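Recall that a protein's primary structure is simply its ordered list of amino acids. Everything else, from secondary elements to tertiary packing, is in principle encoded there. The following example makes that idea concrete.
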Amino acid sequence: MQNPSSPNEGSKNLLKTTASLKEVRPLKRDPASTEPPRAGDDLSVLDSALVRATIEGRATTIQVLIQQGADLRVQLPDGWNVLMLAAWNGQQRAIRLLIAEGVNLDARDDHGRTALMIGIWSGQMEAVRLLVDQGADVNVKDNDGKTALMWAAHKGSVEVVNLLLHMAAKAQVQTPKGMTALKYAEREGHVDIVKILEALT
């Protein structure tokens, strides 16, 4: 695994994940299985259709597929769930529906990233706002100790940084390598965010 502290690491990993979704194909699945289906392994026709509907934000179709037995636990490349996929694509109606249907708001992928972090890196401000409004934990850390605020500072989103701080995101948290939201902003040259975070010290 590469170290997300390096420049642009987050975008490379996330883009690799989304590119791999092209390999999702409907395959035969044992209907008696109780294990979550995995993309590229044993997705049923329903589960594959659920993935496609989530990418496209077709909430009505998602609801019908759920009623027909599509598995909301479906696991995508890098351990993504359908909520993460909806966040990456900024599909707000899908996000609302999936949360209402019980998809874990703070579930983590194989790298410890949440739907909130993924939405931040994708630049989906309204999806990020919706996830926060729905109660997403703003202080969860990924596998490298990076918080949503650090992702926002790294990305350079002033609006998201202000939103997260308003929701009590902890600005002084450090990764095991000593990185903070302020240090990410400084390294990436996001002057406005540096000023915001320096005012908190």
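Residues 2 and 181 are 19 Å apart (CA to CA). The mean pLDDT is 84.
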